[in-house]
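USER: Study each token:
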Amino acid sequence: MGDQKRAVTPRQALDRGASILVVGRPISLAEDPDMAARAIEATL
């Protein structure tokens, strides 16, 4: 997780009460950003 202090999965963030998710590198650095975003969405 490198420089992130409070990094959790998107599902964990929602379960802990988050109302907004910021997902950057897992999508922007993916070989197929569209599929990466869809895979993350599927976990929600």
Remarks:
- Residues 10-42 form one domain.
- The mean pLDDT is 90.
- The chain has three helices and no strands.
